[in-house]
Amino acid sequence: MTAIRPFVLQRIDHVVLRVGDPERSLAFYRDVLGCDVVKRRDDLGLIHLRCGASMIDLVDVQGKLGLAGGAAAGEQARNVDHVCLRIEPFDETALVTHLAAHGLKPLGPAHDNFGAEGDGPSLYLRDPDGNTIELKGPSRPDRKP
């Protein structure tokens, strides 16, 4: 017999990323992706960033919280597969141009992926610590779940 849950899932509230250089990561998430700093907890090595309705928290791997997680992530030791950020509009040419202006390039061309709203275009890139970021556009009208 399955118990009835006393809650309903709403959305992702926040994602916490362990980072090697908080200021470099802050510049990426603020300047490239458009996140805003909501709060800093320098005593913990923690920066809270607004990402639309959600949050991305950056934790310094050398800070109080980060030291509890062991070594920093790398190509062979990732602590997150990827974080998907829903964006609109989705204009691949404009995105690639924007990324290039920041010295970045996507991991490949955009392609349709399934997400919370159905199938729609996605473009992948890496943040300064090697975490994969998916920029996800709106679902195609004929491809909604």
SSE map:
Elements: E1 14-19, H1 22-32, E2 36-41, E3 46-51, E4 54-60, E5 82-86, H2 92-101, E6 111-115, E7 118-126, E8 132-136
Parallel strand pairs: 1-4, 5-8
Antiparallel strand pairs: 2-3, 3-4, 6-7, 7-8
What does this structure look like?
InterPro entries: Glyas_Bleomycin-R_OHBP_Dase, Glyas_Fos-R_dOase_dom, GlyoxalaseI/FosfomycinResist, VOC_core. It comes from Solilutibacter silvestris. It holds the Pfam family Glyoxalase. Keywords: Lyase. It is a single chain. The mean pLDDT is 86. The strands form two sheets. The protein has a four-stranded mixed beta sheet, with helices on one face. The protein is globular and about 50 Å long. The protein is built from two helices and eight strands; from the N terminus they run E-H-E-E-E-E-H-E-E-E. It is α/β, with parallel strands linked by helices and 145 residues long. It has one domain: 2,3-Dihydroxybiphenyl 1,2-Dioxygenase, domain 1 (Roll).
Shape: globular
| Reported CATH architecture | Roll
Oligomer: single chain
Tally of discrete structural domains: 1
Helix-residue proportion: 10-25%
CATH superfamily: 2,3-Dihydroxybiphenyl 1,2-Dioxygenase, domain 1
The tally of helices reads 2
Topology, number of strands: 8
The strand line-up of the biggest sheet is: 1-4-3-2
CATH class: Alpha Beta
Annotated CATH topology: 2,3-Dihydroxybiphenyl 1,2-Dioxygenase, domain 1
GO molecular function: lyase activity
Keywords: Lyase
InterPro entries: Glyas_Bleomycin-R_OHBP_Dase, Glyas_Fos-R_dOase_dom, GlyoxalaseI/FosfomycinResist, VOC_core
Protein name: Lactoylglutathione lyase
